[in-house]
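Is this the right way to post C-alpha cells for a design question? Let me know if I should format differently. Anyway, here goes:
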C-alpha cells in the first residue's frame, strides 16, 4: 500500500524558522496530529509513505514575517520521505501558490502506473483541488480526506472572517464529496457529509508517546495548580474559566494560562487583579508540556453549545489525559462515550458548573488525583496510540476494496 500524505508539519530543520517568524498562534495542535498520523502509517507493515509538506503557517504580513517559505528534502520517523515544497506566503497569492506547490509535489512522487492513496490533511481548498486533479487521470490513485474541522466553524466571528469562511465553505462543499474516503473526528461529521459506512472511519485523535522523554511524575508544586494551554478565544470558554476560578476562595489554588487569542486581554486583566492567576503568554509546545508537568489539574472550559461542538473533539483532550493529571471539561456531543469515565465533567454547562467542579477537585487528596490521572493516561496509551488508530484507516481501505471485489464477482 502506498500513501502520499499532503499536509503541513513543522520539520525540525524548519521549526526555529517557523516559530521565530510567527506573529501569533502557531498551529502546534495540527502539527502534532499530523505527525501522529504519519507515525501510525510508518508503523504499519507493508505501507510505503511519502509526505508532500507545505506547512500551515499564517500569511504575510499580518500573521507572519516571511513572504516566502523555503523547500526542503528530508525524512521523518523511520522511513517516510519528505518533499517540502517552497511557496509564496503573501496574502491572497499564497492560496494559488500553495495549490501549485501541492500539485507539483504530488506529480513528482506519483507516476501513471502507481497504485496509491493520496491523503489530504484538513479542509484546505488548495490541497483538496491539487489531490483531485492529480488523481483524475490516474485510475489506480484514490483520495482520502482527514477532516479535523469544517471550514465554516474555523476562525473568529469578525466580518472579514465570515466573508472568507463563506468562500472557503462553498469551495470545500464542491470539492469534498469527490473524495473516495474520509477520516472524521466525530460521527456527526460523517452524518453532515452524508457518508456511507464504507466511506469513512472515526479517528477522534491520536496520542503519540514518541515525543515523551520520560514518564510523567507528580508535581512537587505546593497547593493545587489548574492549567489551560491553547487558543484564548472567548467562544472556547476562557471567560468562563476566569469567572469560575474567581469563585474559588481557596488562597492556595492557582490558575496558569498559556496561549493567544481574542480573550488575551481579559486574561491579562485577571492576572493583574488576582495574584493566583498567572499568564505565561504564548509559549512553544515543549514549554507548554513542561508547565503541564508542574500543574495538578488540566482544564478545558469549552462549552457544549453551538452546532460546531457536534463536530469537535478538542485535540488537547488526549494530551491532557496523557499528562497523568485529572482533566476537567464539559461533555461535547461529538465525543465517543468511552471517554466518560476518564473525564471530570461539570454538572452544568456554565461558569458556575465549572467552578463547582474545580472546587471539588481542589479538595481531593493528591493520592486520589494521581489515581484519576493514571487511569486516563493508561487509557490513552493503550487505546489511542498511532498504530491502533491508523489500523482503522487501513481497514477502511481494505473493506472498500473487498466490497468492490465482491460486486465485481457477482456482476460477472
Amino acid at each position: 500500500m502506498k500513501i502520499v500524505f499532503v499536509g503541513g508539519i513543522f520539520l525540525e530543520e524548519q521549526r526555529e524558522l517557523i516559530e521565530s517568524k510567527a506573529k501569533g498562534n502557531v498551529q502546534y495542535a495540527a502539527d502534532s496530529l499530523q505527525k501522529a498520523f504519519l507515525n501510525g502509517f510508518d508503523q504499519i507493515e507493508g505501507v510505503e509513505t511519502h509526505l508532500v509538506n507545505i506547512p500551515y503557517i499564517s500569511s504575510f504580513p499580518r500573521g507572519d514575517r516571511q513572504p516566502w517559505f523555503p523547500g526542503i528534502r528530508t525524512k521523518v520517523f523511520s522511513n517516510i520521505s519528505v518533499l517540502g515544497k517552497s511557496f509564496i506566503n503573501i496574502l491572497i497569492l499564497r492560496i494559488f501558490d500553495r495549490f501549485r506547490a501541492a500539485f507539483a509535489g504530488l506529480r513528482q512522487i506519483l507516476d501513471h502506473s502507481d497504485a496509491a492513496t493520496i491523503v489530504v490533511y484538513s479542509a484546505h481548498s488548495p490541497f483538496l483541488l491539487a489531490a483531485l486533479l492529480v488523481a483524475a487521470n490516474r485510475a489506480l490513485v484514490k483520495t482520502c480526506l482527514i477532516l479535523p474541522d469544517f471550514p465554516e466553524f474555523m476562525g473568529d466571528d469578525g466580518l472579514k472572517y465570515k466573508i472568507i469562511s463563506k468562500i472557503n465553505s462553498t469551495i470545500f462543499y464542491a470539492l469534498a464529496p469527490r473524495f473516495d474516503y474520509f477520516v472524521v473526528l466525530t460521527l456527526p461529521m460523517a452524518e453532515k457529509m452524508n457518508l456511507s459506512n464504507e466511506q469513512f472511519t472515526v479517528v477522534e485523535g491520536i496520542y503519540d508517546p514518541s515525543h515523551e522523554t520520560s514518564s510523567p511524575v507528580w508535581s512537587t508544586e505546593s497547593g493545587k495548580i489548574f492549567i489551560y494551554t491553547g487558543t484564548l478565544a472567548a467562544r472556547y470558554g476562557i471567560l468562563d474559566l476566569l469567572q469560575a476560578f474567581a469563585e474559588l476562595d481557596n488562597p492556595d489554588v492557582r490558575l496558569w494560562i498559556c496561549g493567544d487569542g481574542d480573550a488575551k486581554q481579559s486574561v491579562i486583566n485577571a492576572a493583574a487583579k488576582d495574584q493566583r492567576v498567572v499568564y505565561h503568554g504564548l509559549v512553544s509546545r515543549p514549554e507548554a508540556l513542561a508547565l503541564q508537568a508542574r500543574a495538578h489539574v488540566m482544564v478545558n472550559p469549552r462549552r457544549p453549545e453551538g452546532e460546531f461542538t457536534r463536530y469537535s473533539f478538542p485535540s488537547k483532550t488526549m494530551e491532557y489525559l496523557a499528562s497523568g493529571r485529572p482533566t476537567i471539561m464539559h461533555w461535547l456531543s461529538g465525543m465517543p462515550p468511552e471517554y466518560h469515565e476518564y473525564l471530570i465533567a461539570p454538572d452544568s454547562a456554565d461558569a458556575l458548573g465549572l467552578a463547582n467542579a474545580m472546587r471539588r477537585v481542589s479538595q481531593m487528596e493528591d493520592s486520589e488525583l494521581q489515581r484519576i490521572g493514571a487511569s486516563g493516561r493508561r487509557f490513552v496509551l493503550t487505546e489511542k496510540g498511532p498504530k491502533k488508530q491508523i489500523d482503522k484507516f487501513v481497514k477502511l481501505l481494505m473493506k472498500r476494496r473487498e466490497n468492490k471485489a465482491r460486486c465485481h464477482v457477482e456482476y460477472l
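Format looks fine. Someone answered above. Worth noting: The chain is about 40% helix and 15% strand. The chain has two domains: 2-208, 210-383.
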